[in-house]
Design goal:
By secondary structure, the protein is mostly helical. The chain has a single domain, classed as Na+/H+ antiporter like fold, CATH 1.20.1530. It has twelve helices and no strands.
């Protein structure tokens, strides 16, 4: 793995994302930008349109879909267990432990993961990355909320929260259309194509805007633990889990990259909403995203061989 190969891989796959998110970061720093409104536009329009488009245009076999969902579920739960073991061993205080737990379990499979998989491995891998993203979103809005709430939200309310996730509807509609071989009208198809085409740039810009809101944390142990687990341990765990799940080709590439992403920006929202250490979570997200090219670049080279 030569330095020139690493440099070209970084320049072709990661640098475009960093440059566009950097523009979003500058926008958030120097102008009064309502990131919450932009986030809602992405969440309610662009993300579900992208997922729907990926699944309709690239009909995924049922067995492959089940494999991706099972791999995603296992990956998130294993990372949660590892984080819990390390956190308890380090005797982290409960609010800090819960903050580290949600930041480490859920990677940025949307704003960052989808464009990276698209650039690195193309449309074939992107459809599986989209399914990984949907599965992560569902778990984030159930398991993630239960963890963050520290018992204040029951399972019923968390499950009802799934009804508010548009990507779930995008997934279900895509399954129905593929299952019954329904052909979409040209006007509707072009509308979805148009929205899906703009979703990834919007996600990248939003990532930069959200990162511009970073707060610094005094809990260096929590920051170091979460970033180390997400960027170093998660790729190793994903590679090991891919063996029993029989992942190969585009499914393997998409699954490993998505499992190796830094902490999701949305974890900062949970931390704030449920009064965890929000400055700790935002520091984990910011530093993890900044350091991620150091681990993702060689990983892309490895997966591309």
């Amino acid at each position: 793995m030569s330095l020139s190969i690493l440099a070209s891989t970084f320049a072709n796959n990661l640098l475009p994302i960093l440059l566009l998110s950097g523009a979003g970061f500058a926008l958030g720093k120097f102008l009064s930008v309502d990131s919450r409104t932009i986030g809602r536009v992405v969440f309610y329009i662009f993300a579900p349109m992208l997922v729907f488009n990926l699944l309709v245009q690239n009909d995924i076999k049922f067995t492959e879909a089940i494999t991706v969902v099972a791999f995603t579920l296992t990956m998130i739960l294993v990372m949660g267990l590892i984080t819990l073991i390390f956190g308890l061993t380090m005797k982290l205080e409960r609010p800090i432990l819960m903050a580290v737990l949600i930041a480490t379990m859920f990677g940025n499979t949307g704003n960052y993961g989808l464009p990276l998989v698209s650039f690195a491995f193309g449309e074939d891998a992107l459809r599986y990355a989209g399914l990984y993203f949907v599965t992560t979103s569902i778990l984030f809005n159930t398991v993630g909320i239960l963890i963050a709430s520290l018992g204040h939200t029951n399972l019923k309310d968390a499950l009802l929260g799934l009804l508010k996730i548009p990507t779930v509807y995008g997934l279900l509609l895509a399954v129905l259309i593929n299952g019954f071989n329904i052909e979409l009208p040209v006007a509707l198809s072009r509308t979805i194509d148009l929205a899906a085409g703009g979703s990834i740039p919007m996600m990248i810009v939003l990532l930069g805007i959200e990162l511009s809101r970073v707060q610094w944390s005094s809990s260096l142990r929590g920051v170091g633990l979460s970033i180390s687990l997400r960027l170093l341990i998660a790729p190793a765990v994903a590679l090991l889990l891919s063996i029993p799940f029989g992942l190969n080709g585009a499914v393997w590439q998409a699954g490993i990259i998505q499992a190796s992403m830094p902490a999701a920006v949305n974890t900062t929202i949970l931390a704030t909403e449920y009064k965890l250490d929000s400055s700790l979570v935002t520091a984990i997200v910011f530093l993890g995203t900044l350091l991620s090219p150091l681990t993702l670049t060689p990983l892309i080279v490895l997966l591309g061989r």
